[in-house]
Amino acid sequence: MRRIISVLLENEPGALSRVVGLFSQRNYNIESLTVAPTEDETLSRLTVTTTGSDKVIEQITKQLNKLIEVVKLVDLTEGAHIERELMLVKLKATGSQRAEIKRTVDIFRGQIVDVTSSVYTVQLAGDSEKLDGFIQAIGTSGVLEVVRTGVSGIARGEKVLSL
Amino acid sequence: MELLSGADMLIRSLKDEGIEYIYGYPGGAALHIYDALFRQDEVKHILVRHEQAAVHMADGYARATGKPGTVLVTSGPGATNTITGIATAFMDSIPMVVLCGQVASTLIGEDAFQETDMMGVSRPVVKHNFSVRHPEEIPEIIRKAYYIAATGRPGPVVVDIPKDMTTPNERYEYSYPKKVKLRSYNPAIRGHAGQIKKAVDMLLAAKRPIIYAGGGVVLGKASDQLTELVRMLGYPITNTLMGIGCYPASDKQHLGWLGMHGTYEANMAMHHSDLILCVGARFDDRVTNATEKFCPGARIIHVDIDPASISKTIDADVPIVGPVDAVLKEMLSLVKESKEKPDADAIASWWKQIDEWRAFHGMRYETSPDVIKPQEVIEMLCRLTNGEAFVTSDVGQHQMFAAQYYKFDKPNRWINSGGLGTMGFGLPAAMGIKLTHPDDEVLCITGEGSIQMNIQELSTCKQYNLPVKIINLNNQALGMVKQWQDMNYESRHSQSYMESLPDFIKLAEAYGHVGVRIDKKEDLETKLKEVLAMKDKLVFVDIYVDRFEHVYPMQVARGAMKDMWLSKTERV
User: For A59, which residue in chain B has the nearest alpha carbon?
Assistant: First the structure.
C-alpha cells in the first residue's frame, strides 16, 4: 500500500543521507522524497512516499524513529490528509495545438508560466494522480520535458506535526 | 576557564568521561591528538598492530565490563580498517566510541592524501556518527557520543575529527558538559504498565511456557532479575548464543541455548510451547529457522529496549518496549502479588516432556580412543577452569563447540561475534579483557583459519604483557565451511582446506611467547594443566583435533525449530 510519511528532521549536514541510506540499506522503496527547512531553522521537514505491507511500513517508521536526527514523524495516510505535488512541463505548442493546450490547462486549473512561439511551459499543482491525468490528457507526444517536486503532505483538521 | 587546544580538549574530555584505556594506531591526521596523549598519563593508549584489532579490543573490554570501549585511529586506511570491527559491535549492540582523524576541513572533498569519507563509509554500521566542525564542539560531541553509545540499545558511535580541529596553537575555553540534551533521542526508561500486567497474566495461565532470553539481558545487566523471575515461576529457560550466561547454565531449569546449533531440548520446547516470553532477543534467522513454521502454538510476549526489534521477523502478541531490568522487576513484583499461581499440574507434565527430550540427545558425541574430539577439549577446559574463565571465540565450528560445552554460570564471560560472525575477533577481544582483568583466566578458543586473521596481535600481547591462552582447535580446514560442503555440496571441499599452515609453535616463539602442541589424546589433560599453570605467559596451544567432526544438533534448513540433524545420520 502507498504511504506518505512526514518527518521532522534536525537541520544538520548528513541528516538527509541517513534517511536515504536507511531506505536502501533495508531494501525499502522510495517513490518520492521532498525536503526543505521549516519556519524553525533548526528543523527540516521531509516527506517520503513509499509502498509496502503493513509490516514493512511499521518497520520503516520504527527504523526512521531510531535515527538520532529524526525528531518526530507521522504516517499521514493513517488519517485524513492533503497531498500536493507541483509539476512544470514543457509542451510543444504550435498552430491549432496552442488553443487546445490552453483549454486543457484551464480544465486542470494549471497556469501557463512561460511562452515562446513554439513552446508553452505549464505549472500544475495537485495530487499525483491529477498530474498523471494531465500528462495523459495532453498525450506524451507533445511533452518535451517534465519536472515534478514529489509529494508534500499535511494532515487535515487541527492535527499538527511540530515539536 | 582553562584554554586548551582541540587535541587537548579531546583527551581531557575522555578523562572527564572516565575513560582509562584507548586502543589505536597513529597516523598523519591524528598526530596532534597523539601529541596531546603523550603529554599526559591518565588516559592510557594501547598500540595495536592493525586497526581492526583495536576495535575488537575495545569491544572485548566493553562486553566484559559493560562500559563503552574507545578507539583512536587516523584517517583513510586507519579509519576504513576499523569498519569490520565497528560492524561487529553494531550487530551485537556493543557500546563503543571510535575517534577517527580526518584530513583538514579545507581539504575535504579534494581527494587529499589519506582522505576517506568516514561519515559515509561508517553510516550503515553505526548507531550515530559526528563530524567535528568547530574545535569548541569537541567536549559536547564526546559527551553525546558516549551517551548515545551506552544508553538505549547500545552501539558504536564514530567521531570524525579533521586535523585542523586539533591544531595545537589554537586554544579555546574548556568545560565538560554535565548533562546531555538531545531532543530527538529519548530511550524508554520503563515498560508500559498495562502491557506488563497482561504479560504476567498470560505467563501465569500458560501450560507450556518457555523463557527465551538474549544478549539484551547481558547488556541490560538484568541477569539477577531474570534468574529470580525464572526460579519463582519454575519455568524452563533457553537463551541465544549472545545471551549465554544470563542464566546459570548449570541450573536444572536451563535448557541450553537454542537455534541452529542449539540443544535438542531447547528447540523442541520452543516448538511445542504455548507461550514464549522473549526478553532482549530479536528472533534472528539463526534462531527461528523458517519463520512461517516458527512455534505454531505459541503466543509471544516480547520485551526489548528497541521497538524496531519487536515484530520485525516474528509478530509479538504482547510487545513491551523498555529496559529489560526495569520490565523484569515489575513482572517480578506482579508475580509475587498475584493471587494466581502457575498451573502446577500442567507445568509438571511440561517438565516431564522436557526431561524426556533432554534424555534423548543430551549433547552426546562419539568419542574415540586415539583422536582428540574438539568437544572434549572444551569440556576439559571448562573443568580445569571451574567454568569461571572469560572465553572469547572466533567464528566457526570451534565457536559452536565452545558455546555448547563450556558451561557459563555468569554473564559477560562468553565473548563472541554472534551477529556479524567476524573471524579474527577472538584474540584482540581476549586482549581487551586481559588488560583490565589481569587476575582472571582469559581463553581465546579459536581455529587455525580464524586466528590467522589477526595473528599479528601476538606482538601487541608481548608489548603489554597480556598472558591470554590461545586454544587453537586445529582441524586443518575451515571446519564450518567444510561441514556445510559435506552436508549440502556432496563433500566438494571448495577452498575450505588450508595447505601450508604455519608452525604455530615457532610462530608463537618468534613473537616471544610459548607454544605447546598437543596431538595425542593421552597428553591432553596433562598438557592443558601445564598451560594453565603458566599464569604469566601467553601460551599458544595448537591442538590437533578430529578433522571430520561436525557440529550437532543442527537445524534442517528451511524447517521448523524442531527439525534437526542430531548426528551425521540421525534426523528428527
Answer: B308
